[in-house]
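S1.2 Input.
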Amino acid sequence: YTRHTDRIPCCTGGFGGSSFWKIRYSSPSIFRFLTTKEQFHALLDSGEKCLHGEKASDDTGQKETAEDSFEEPQEKKLKVDPDEQERTGKQDSKRMRGQNKSRPHMKPTSYDTRRLCPSIIQEREAKCVFGDKCKFFHDVAEYMASKPADVGERCYLYDTFGKCHYGLSCRFARAHISADLKNLVNEERVEEMLGRKPVRNSLDKDLQWRLRKKVVPFTASDAYMKSVFKGGPKEAKKAQSADNGKRWGCCFGGRGMWSIVKTIGPLTDTDIIKLRQGEKKQCGNLPFRRICKRFGADITCGEMAMCTNLLQGQSSEWALLKRHESEDLFGVQVEGCFPDTMTRCAELLNNNIDVDFVDINSGCPIDLVYKKGGGCGLMTRTNKFQQIITGMNSVLDVPLTVKIRTGVQEKTNIAHKLIPEMKTWGVSMITLHGRSREQRYTKSADWDYINTCSQLASPIPLFGNGDILSYVDAMKARETNVSGIMLARGALIKPWIFTEIKEGRNWDISSSERLDILRDFTHYGLEHWGSDTQGLEKTRNFLLEWLSFTCRYIPVGLLERVPQRINERPPYYFGRDYLESLMASQHVGDWVKISEMLLGPVPTNFNFLPKHKANAYK
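S1.3 Output.
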């Protein structure tokens, strides 16, 4: 975690704009790679396998008009002038950045309306307790006749664990279903897996019931709240209500009187600097983190979980805390606005799950979180922030870390004022994203400012984050004093970046190798979400969300200037084979084609709208 002379430091930011993209065009090679939008999509629509051989004779005729035909993506639109905006009544498009506002809020689509009863799938000896009132199928022959066709010949769950718990409902059932429709078991493989628990931190049903009935004791949290508010939790709630009724703003300096509580203090591991894979909602899931671990990520962190949802026992929120056995250094990230709920959440996690650290996300920029005073809002509510950190530290047995941004407003950095205060509050590590809330991803990360803050944070480790997409970026960070780097978008665009940084090279990875990575993700997804129809389509949905990032990668072998920068916009280009071109498409329909290579055809009622709009390319 801490600084070391042989550390792998963080990177410098990239450059915005499309003018930095240069595809290799020595000799007539330009005609093999650069293309127009229309030609690019025409190739993908036709499904043509040979990109260059059949049309090589046409190159000479195209040379005269080649430069005119190569389209660059449109330039970013300038921010609307406030006076002009008021006169025309047009809404500022900047407010929409990074979010697909037109994406409707829909319940998960059910792709398997005729589902088999769990009592049959699990081959229970006892009959279904619901009897004739059961809403699921009990006639196996009728179910098998209406079941969608199997996707593949081999079942990853059966090959890995010796038994597929989805039985007849598995979309790879032919690999482990006998002629008499019985689920086969590989006893030898089952024996090997006996005693292993690949995934930990699942929500216990008894704990869920106690959380919903509000009978879980929070002794340590209540004791802390009494030390802060004389009336205990009741007075804390009154203070929260009063705080909600006010317009909160920057409140530096008011620290108040505090009772002495235990703190972890700065971490002092000096063996190696860690590469941390950061959270990304929808994409930083457990299967994806397994991919990152395979390529060399040292630390993994779960997706942001809302503390109130955890305290209510919501299964979907607790799923974000799950930890795979390959994650040897793993933390969970929580978000909240008030000291009583955050302290109780910390005590709940400390007593019920296995983690190496707990991270407070005080850098989340989304409106839903910020307007309630959470995320970036905590940076301007320092009294509440101090109470949260001190309270969580008093109930945790593991280090408490914090993720922040440079500030809220674009030109008003406040992290350098906040970091010295956080050192006295007992924070064990700080992660600093080099942009403000207002900047989102439209500007380059400010690594000079990160360097300044890392000096202020010493001896507490500070990890830098922002615009890291290559080992060259990491090498430039040797000039900074950060203790390590956190990767988020860079890992989503090219998860092999961890290998590149550790081996100090640009990896010209082939399209077949990239497809193998996607195939491994689908295997991990089927293991995590299930190999039945619902699990398979959920895996497909997360795969498509990830492909909205991977399409931004440009192969090293096509670049005139290496490496690729994270905020640069690539032109339309042909890959070295059809699959590489398909992976370069930013059209949702082409992402679906890739998913069908791995998970079979989509259902007739399938629909998908991407969550991320790739604001850096807008």
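S1.4 Remarks. The beta strands are 199-200, 275-277, 299-306, 323-324, 330-335, 357-362, 400-405, 429-433, 462-465, 484-487.
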